[in-house]
Amino acid sequence: VEEGIVFINVVVAPATIGQIQSTVNVIGSTVDSNFEDNQASLEINVDQLTADLQLVIEDAPDPGIVNNPLTYRFTLTNNGPDVATGINLINQLPQNVLYQSRATITPLEIEGHCNDVNEANEVVCTIEALPKEATATLSLVVQTLIAGDLLMTSSFTLNAFNPDNVNEDGT
Predict the structure, then answer these.
(1) How many CB atoms within 10 Å of residue 48?
(2) Which among 53, 49, 50, 51 is positioned nearest to 167, based on CA atoms?
């Protein structure tokens, strides 16, 4: 293009944190008397998202009643400062319960899904993104098979740094 400007946008997804550099060179088919302005570079720092997630587990009714439904409610709160993405909540069902229904995620604005119970007696739920200061609630129904104490254990992983690892597990 004569006397024109060409814009080229390149989008990258850095795989590591730290400083990255991008350099571009231009070469034309016409004579260029000044080669010093044919290269441009850009340096940028890549940081990791930080999201402080908190997990709370509740059950109802408490105490549960043998051969009756028991609902577990998992409340996941993002205390910020950034959005939390790629969240996997792994719920290890207690011994002596029967999985009754697929877990649900609310509010509806939170995109995600829960799988049925797997061979390891786990229910895994995935949340695509949980904005800063937002809360997602997951509900899961089981049936108790015997009297006694039940131990529900949950943990999560995410695509951001969680500065408060104390909040990562719930029982």
Answers:
(1) 11
(2) 53
Distance (Å, whole) CA 64 – CA 55: 22
What is d(CA 131, CA 127) in angstroms, rounded to the nearest whole number? 11
Measured CA to CA, the distance from residue 57 to residue 169 in angstroms comes to 10
**Model-level pTM greater than 0.90?**
no
SS3 74: strand
Please report, to the nearest 10 degrees, the dihedral formed by the alpha carbons of residues 108, 109, 115, 117 taken in order.
Answer: -60
Instruction: State the DSSP H helix or E strand holding residue 20, giving kind and residue range, or none if neither.
Output: strand 18-25
Maximum Cα interatomic distance, the chain, rounded to a whole number of Å: 88
What values do phi and psi take at 149, rounded to 5?
Answer: -75, 140
Distance CA 70, CA 62 (A): 8
Report how far apart, in Å, the C-alpha atoms of 157 and of each of 54, 95, 136, 161 are.
12, 23, 15, 10
> Is the pLDDT confidence value at 86 over 60?
yes
Q: At 16, give phi and psi (nearest 5°).
A: -135, 160
Residue 140 CA to residue 128 CA, distance in Å, equals 19
Q: How confident is the model at residue 159 (pLDDT cuts 50, 70, 90)?
A: confident
DSSP 8-state class, residue 113: E
